[in-house]
Amino acid sequence: VLQCSASLDVLFLLDGSYSIGKGSFERSKLFAGKLCDALDIHSDRVRVGMIQFSSTPHLEFPLDSYLTKQEVKERIKRIVFRGGSTETGRALKYILRKGFPGGRNSSVPEVLIIISDGKSQGSTAMPAMQVKERHIMVFAVGIKFPRWEELHVLASEPIEQHVLFAGDADDAANGLYSTLTGSVCSATTPGCKVESHPCERRTLETVKELAGNYVCWKGSKQPNAVRALLCPLYSGDAHTGTGWEGAGSLLTPCLSLPWSRLDPCDSQPCQNGGTCVPEGLDKYHCLCPVGYGGDIHCAPKLSLECSVDLLFLMDSSAGVTLEGFLRYKAFLKRFLQAAIGRDSPMNVGVAQYDNDVRIPIEVGQHKDAFSLMKSIDALNFSGAGTLTGRALQYVAQHGFRSTPVFADVQDDLPRVVVLLTDSKSQDPVAEAAKYARDRDLFLIGVGSSFMRAELTKVTGNPKQTIVYLDPQDLFNRIPELQRRICSVDNPEGCQAQSLDLAFAVDASAGVGLENFLRLREFVRSSFLHFSINRDVTQIALVVYGSKAHTVFALDTHTSNSALLQAVEQVPFLGDAASAGSALLHIYGDVMTVQKGARPGVNKAVVVLTNGGGVGDAAAPAQQLRDNGILVFVVVIGDAQRDTLLRVAGSPNYLVRTSSYEDLQHYQDLIIERICEEAKSPVNLCKPNPCMNQGVCILGPGSYRCECHGWEGPHCESRVLRGDSPKSLVLPPHSHVQRSSSGLQHFSRAPRHTKRH
């Protein structure tokens, strides 16, 4: 197999938009894996990274994460389709601003491979030109039914060598290798002879029996020349094509212009972001997003897939303007038409606010869709000040009135408030929002992109903040809003996973005070991705210089708000760094039963470091792994990868970023990996829950501690003279309760925690 073997940074830009759909996205992933076969992936040769883009770019993995071909291909297989609009220009601007994540900073040639259908929502010409002006070689690969003229704009010159078609993965990999060989790769591979052969047009006919005429399409080098016409289809696997010709290792540098019969999905019959899946020559079915599926083409489905009491809090102040207020009314009506059944109970209400707050439509007031829509039409714009904080406090007190079926039975449906605003509040929102959340209101914020920071203060969680780019984009957020509303009963990611998690933050002089504050803010914002309580996630925080200090233990704080306050008190140490002493401290004094660790719960440590002082950390990290505790290493700046890899144990648990400013862009990636691991099976006896040299013995779904000279559930009490040692069988997730006489009782965690 011929491979490009040179020092080269290759970044894939993978289109994950709704116009591609899940089916073609999976084919794109398969194709990207095929292209990797043409690359000699190694730490000092070709490095590969990947960004998925739709409405926004999302870093799937940086170039320095996986340094073997097998690792890269396995990671590509695990990438999940995101969906959204096709913002190719925005993705290119991200690369212009951030460079190649984890790359070698232009010290080696850079190659960008864009796999897309070329149907961007905005102009790509300017950012594409700027990318190529930075001497980045750009390949544009067409997938599905591409808009060739846009791919030609994206690709480097000469176009015929840099535009490929994913319809034939082997041909395209051949073309990629041919083009790279002419520029950045080694011209020849030992033992291989490369010859150039002219292209020839050939008709491939497996069977001569004519089955009929079908619409065909042809890609062309000429702009606006993608042509559709009738061509014969023969029974069997027959098609006409111009492509790469040759045999064995003979390569032909020519443009692939395939002919192909349209499949039934090329007319894009699925609406509202649905994914078309072909079934044979002329049939298909649609995979519909949440909230759609009312018919075979993904029309709005008339029911929310969850039961909630839902209150919309609409901003009708002067800041949103009359036009914005009318837009919110239209959005509200369209959302309810898609989400609420005609015959289902209307547990929906609407409140309005400016300087004052009114609830013109009480939750549950309307029993049918028609009367609800009529009441929404009657809402009037007021145009006064914007007191969002006051409005949140008011609806927390008066927005939901219990409507029990029986007088002595309370309505216990989850209560959700959706804030619609496009205007900065003139009063503080943080305390009022906390007041609402503390009363078990689930807050979701919807607003334009410049409102993101304030809406996140309101919701307390970036995942419950929905922003739109322009007025029309607001209506594209209906499926996302439906998912967020129903996540109150089905939390995403680590929100639903039991996890004991410790952060170890480098507070040494090598990091410096300014960068330490950035690390502290990163840790703080990471907390928002977890549901903090005794039965789901517990978090401990350790800072280290030459010695390690526990800021708070696993069982110190039992709510997100308490954690967020405590992290503000984290001290900067300013001495030398020893990551090894921090990991030893976590093993012996943090991940222990007496400090709140829960047997039967996954455990992980996240080390945030600049790479200094990690030389002594490999052995303690291995000790943690041997005891069932994962170690994630997040390093900022240049550091010896081999040393860091010994600490992390695997490239899957090593994340590198070039600067502290860029760290926030890796947060989703880090949290995603932690959440994946939180679902793994655990060994109840790792780490050993028994204290004072007690031996942990596994039973079916339980464990017991065999004590010598000690007694109690975890061998925590010394045996007094005349007593005999005892062992007690404990179920998983057992909580040891403290009393005035010491550790005496254990209890099983509530039934909704994860069991093994």
Summary of the model, kept short:
The protein is an alpha/beta fold.
Strand percentage: 15-25%
CATH topology of the largest domain: Rossmann fold
SS elements, strand count: 32
State the helicity in percent bands: 25-40%
The whole-number mean of residue pLDDT values reads 78
Name the CATH class of the largest domain.
Answer: Alpha Beta
Helical segment count: 20
Q: Which architecture of the largest domain would the CATH scheme give at its second level? A: 3-Layer(aba) Sandwich
- Provide the domain count: 5
Describe this structure in words.
- It is built from 20 helices and 32 strands.
- The two termini are 46 Å apart.
- It has 756 residues and is of the alpha/beta class.
- Helix 15 (513-527) runs antiparallel to helix 16 (560-567) and helix 18 runs parallel beside helix 19.
- It has a six-stranded mixed beta sheet, sandwiched between helices.
- 27% of the residues lie in helices and 24% in strands.
- Strand 12 and strand 13 form a beta hairpin.
- It has five domains: 8-183, 3-Layer(aba) Sandwich (Rossmann fold); 270-301, Laminin (Ribbon); 309-487, Rossmann fold, CATH 3.40.50; 499-678, 3-Layer(aba) Sandwich (Rossmann fold); 688-720, Laminin.
- Residues 200-261, 403-410 and 733-756 have low confidence and may be disordered.
- Its main location: secreted.
- Residues 726-756 are annotated as: Disordered.
- It comes from Fregetta grallaria.
